[in-house]
């Protein structure tokens, strides 16, 4: 293994954040090709599985899993002082994640049992690893991430049980619950890092007043609401209950964000990207709650959560962590800053495409193109950081 490869597999964020970027490009690129060929009335050659199901599953369980792998394998050792994962573990974990992607793509020709085995293997491995690290300092606020990973895994299990023919109609519920489980992670993690990073940046700039503040009731509602909403979907609770929980979750995120002094960081893409993604989280929950009450499109709301909240927060956190942990200044390179805006554009256009039927076909293609270009810019701009040595400009936060 040469020096660059050793670096790539030497730290979890390098391999997984690069994999997330490449997969975001490839998966949406293939989806765009299929949409265009379908619009032209030409079958997509060599695509053995249902493209719509594949796209939905991989945007909920494929891309975010790589982002989570890189985040937890990097953050948990910093939280606990535990030894970080070594080259062999990171390579094995990446291999399992990739095996799941290949298996789902080939699900039309591979036994559903093998598809389930391949796709469900990664999250338990990741959870087991971080559990051994968290046990050194078993703080409840960190141990809850294991429960959230279990929610993600359980949601995916519902899909595979349906594909195996062991349950009836649980795949759609699993997809929605899986997306909401990832949104819950953002509500928890975002609620921790967005005000903290904002406060640190304002301190570095010499501002000691008008710093981010948090309201205890907003924090409780902002975490409990998303958790209960996800559980309500997994349990197939009445729509009225889920709608109420979604509206509570959305209002709580907006309430939390209102205290984080967003107006003071508008000139710093590395920060406003975090605030914008959190705003998308709140708006997505509100739109979902309204759709469950019969007002608006559920598909539009889910894409606002998936693209704007999950996509927006992951690209913001991945780029920031990569810069910080490779000793580079915590300033988003121009291509990365443009990528932040493109992800937000993709979320807005995709929302409009589902909310306004006349805009659907063009809107879906434009949103997919914006997402793909965003991750092309992200991957190219951070390529030297993923493969190269530390620049040692400053320590990571």
Helix-strand blueprint:
Layout: H1 3-8, H2 12-39, H3 51-80, H4 87-105, H5 112-119, H6 122-134, H7 140-163, H8 170-204, H9 216-234, H10 239-258, H11 269-292, H12 298-325, H13 334-355, H14 360-387
Helix pairs in contact: 2-3, 2-14, 3-4, 3-6, 3-8, 3-12, 4-5, 5-7, 6-7, 7-8, 8-9, 8-11, 8-12, 9-10, 10-11, 11-12, 11-13, 12-13, 12-14, 13-14
Task: Report on the architecture of this protein.
With 397 residues, this protein is mostly helical. It has a single domain (3-387), classed as Cytochrome c oxidase-like, subunit I domain (Cytochrome C Oxidase, Chain A, Up-down Bundle). The chain has helices spanning 3-8, 12-39, 51-80, 87-105, 112-119, 122-134, 140-163, 170-204, 216-234, 239-258, 269-292, 298-325, 334-355, 360-387. The two termini are 30 Å apart.
In round numbers, the mean pLDDT is 93
Relevant CATH superfamily: Cytochrome c oxidase-like, subunit I domain
Could you spell the SSE succession in H and E letters? Answer: HHHHHHHHHHHHHH
Shape label: globular
What is the terminal separation in angstroms? 30 Å
What proportion of the residues form beta strands (DSSP E)? under 5%
Question: Which CATH first-tier class would you pick?
Answer: Mainly Alpha
Q: Poorly predicted ranges (pLDDT <50, ≥5 residues)? A: none
In the CATH hierarchy, the third-tier topology is known as Cytochrome C Oxidase, Chain A
Count of domains: 1
- Largest sheet properties: none
Fraction of residues in helix: over 70%
């Amino acid at each position: 293994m040469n020096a660059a490869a050793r670096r790539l597999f030497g730290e979890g964020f390098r391999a997984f954040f690069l994999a997330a970027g490449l997969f975001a490009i490839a998966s949406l690129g293939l989806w765009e090709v299929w949409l265009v060929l379908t619009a032209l009335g030409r079958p997509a050659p060599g695509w053995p599985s249902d493209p719509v199901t594949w796209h939905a599953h991989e945007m909920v369980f494929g891309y975010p899993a790589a982002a989570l792998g890189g985040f937890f394998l990097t953050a948990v050792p910093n939280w606990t002082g535990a030894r970080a994962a070594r080259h062999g573990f990171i390579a094995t974990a990446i291999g399992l994640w990739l095996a799941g992607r290949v298996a789902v793509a080939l699900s039309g020709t591979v036994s559903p049992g093998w598809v389930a085995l391949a796709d469900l293997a990664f999250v338990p491995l990741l959870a087991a690893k971080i559990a051994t690290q968290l046990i050194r300092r078993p703080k409840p606020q960190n141990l809850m991430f294991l429960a959230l990973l279990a929610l993600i895994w359980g949601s995916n299990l519902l899909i595979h049980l349906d594909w195996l023919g062991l349950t009836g109609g649980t795949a759609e519920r699993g997809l929605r619950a899986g997306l909401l489980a990832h949104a819950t992670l953002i509500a928890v993690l975002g609620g921790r890092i967005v005000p903290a990073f904002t406060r640190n940046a304002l301190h570095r700039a010499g501002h000691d007043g008008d710093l981010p503040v948090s309201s205890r009731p907003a924090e409780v509602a902002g975490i409990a609401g998303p958790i209960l909403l996800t559980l309500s979907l997994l349990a197939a609770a009445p729509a009225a209950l889920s709608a109420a929980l979604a509206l509570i979750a959305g209002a709580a995120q907006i309430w939390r964000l209102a205290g984080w002094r967003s107006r003071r960081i508008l000139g710093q893409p590395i920060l406003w990207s975090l605030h914008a993604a959190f705003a998308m989280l709140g708006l997505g929950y509100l739109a979902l709650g309204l759709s469950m009450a019969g007002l608006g499109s559920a598909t539009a709301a889910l894409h606002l959560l998936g693209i704007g909240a999950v996509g927006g927060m992951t690209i913001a956190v991945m780029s920031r962590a990569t810069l910080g942990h490779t000793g580079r200044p915590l300033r988003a390179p121009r291509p990365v800053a443009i990528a932040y805006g493109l992800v937000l554009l993709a979320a807005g256009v995709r929302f409009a495409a589902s909310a306004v039927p006349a805009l659907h076909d063009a809107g879906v293609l434009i949103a997919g193109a914006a997402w793909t270009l965003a991750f092309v810019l992200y991957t190219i701009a951070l390529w030297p950081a993923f493969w190269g040595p530390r620049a040692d400009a400053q320590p990571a936060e």
